[in-house]
């Protein structure tokens, strides 16, 4: 074999392409989910199903996505509102998706919530709500979508599950007056669950990986950003001197969904500019 043959990579021009793939994005009407959905659609997905609790938010998101001038001809974002905290709603979501596709290739399990309160006053209801949505509902979303995920998956073209964790599940989350005890615990749990599911589902041609974002400006994170000094202070404290941008999350999700990441399974990728290495969000 010549040196030229040894360095030639098979079909490298399409290694990041998602041409014709079908994706589902939970928590996809805003923030990280919407950024990821935009990336998936522009990378070639033929269908991207957007779901979140509020129908109006889903419709607004889908309208914006379908107006993207860079998506593939015929590609579409589809709104199916559902409350991911309810098992019945998750089952209904799968049924609705099944009406317009016989398989999905990518599931971005991104729905989540947080709760901030002091240790002494932290309510049982808040703890339970966060754990249920951030951990239990992620598991059952993957479980109920598994028949569609495995329908067209093969060893050489596996389906992908990408779970949104957080660096708060790796290092310390917010403490003090707005402590996020349940959020941090839930994100540690869901990252570990991703590793377990990777071993369980990998042999069945469904790869499971997780991302661990730091602070990205979003509706859920903006309050915490202000409590920690605001964008400028956090940017100055970050090793790369900025917070996350939409393309950072979109690019990472597209990578994990693409052929380029077909040998990643059970990985947790942080995306916070290195801030977690300093021991805090």
TrEMBL record:
Top-rank taxon, per record: Eukaryota
**Family matches, as InterPro entries:** NAD(P)-bd_dom_sf (IPR036291), Sc_DH/Rdtase_CS (IPR020904), SDR_fam (IPR002347), Sec_Metab_Biosynth_SDR (IPR052178)
Keywords of this entry: NADP, Oxidoreductase
SUPFAM superfamilies in UniProt: NAD(P)-binding Rossmann-fold domains
The record, for Gene3D superfamilies, names:
NAD(P)-binding Rossmann-like Domain
Family statement drawn from the similarity comment of this UniProt entry? Belongs to the short-chain dehydrogenases/reductases (SDR) family.
Q: What's the protein here called? A: Oxidoreductase
The species this protein belongs to is: Aspergillus cavernicola
